[in-house]
Amino acid sequence: MECPECDGPVTVEVGRGQPLSTSILDTLLDADEDEDLIILRDCWACGWDEERSVVIESIETTPGDTDAIERTELLNEIMREASKIDSTATLEDAFAELRRKRRLETGVANSSNNVDGG
């Protein structure tokens, strides 16, 4: 974001005393109903600043798809493990094994679909 006064860079701070790295999104998601959030914007070049207050009136949540959540967690775990592997050959072997298993699963699924004479 640029300063409306001098077009310099603006820092955004969520509440006084919070680290500058605290994101507005995380703060909103962690907020409680009837909480008052303060968002500060400051230009270090010209001194312009602005303080905004956001009041959370109500919070509605919808539970996520548990299958999608579990799948995402597994994919993240796989990526963490894969990022620790230094050997390209090991990664290629793991990738080949994944493709082989996927082909086997696809083949089994197709053969079970054709049991009815299709």
Characterise this structure.
The chain is an alpha+beta fold and 118 residues long. It folds into two domains: 10-55; 66-112. Helix content is 43%, strand content 17%. The protein contains three helices and three strands, in the order E-H-E-E-H-H. The protein has helices spanning 24-30, 66-83, 88-113, and strands at residues 10-14, 36-43, 49-55. A three-stranded antiparallel β-sheet has the order 1-2-3, covered by helices on one side. The radius of gyration is 25 Å and the shape is elongated. The N and C termini lie far apart (60 Å).
State the end-to-end CA separation: 60 Å
Mean pLDDT, all residues? 86
* Biggest sheet details: 3 strands, antiparallel
Count of individual beta strands: 3
Our estimate of the beta-strand percent is 15-25%
The parts where pLDDT drops under 50 for at least 5 residues are none
- Element-by-element helix/strand order: EHEEHH
Provide the domain count.
Answer: 2
Helix content: 40-55%
**Would you tell me the structural class of the helices and strands?**
alpha+beta
- Report the total helices: 3
Morphology call: elongated
Q: Using only CA atoms, what is the Rg?
A: 25 Å
Cross-sheet strand order for the largest sheet: 1-2-3
Quick structural overview:
Helix content is 43%, strand content 17%. The protein has 3 helices and 3 strands; from the N terminus they run E-H-E-E-H-H.
